[in-house]
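name: query_chain
kind: protein
chains: 1
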Amino acid sequence: MRAIVQVLKNKDKQDYLRLGNLVLKLNKILAISAPLLTGIAVASLAFGGSTATTVAAITGAMAAIINGFEHGGQVGMVVEMYRNCAGFFGLMEETIEATLEERDYIKRENGEMFEMKVAMKLGRSLSQLRDLARKSIASCIEGTEVDEFGSKLF
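structure:
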């Protein structure tokens, strides 16, 4: 089970945090650029003339497109989805570690049931979970990375 924790920590959680930060940066850029373009459109109208009108029309259209992409594409919700998935993998790590470190055998969860529960939460069968653990152990010995993610759901 510690091998599964390593896969979740090194592959799944790290990947979802990276993607979440990437989408967060995109969301910040979109959130700044749409009002900025709208401001440019309004300011250019104050000058009058055909060039200013053209600039106002183009920047206003670009602001509308960016707003449509930001809100229609639910970019903020995608950020939260990625962070939620990373939090799920963090919770799985903590749960597995807490169960393995429990010294009182009466309080400890049944090993086979716990293994099955972890497999179900990760969208794997028991044999797939054990294969992943073997691959993780072998990759640690060889010094390479595991080629697959721990979860098959997300």
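note: Residues 98 and 108 are 9 Å apart (CA to CA).
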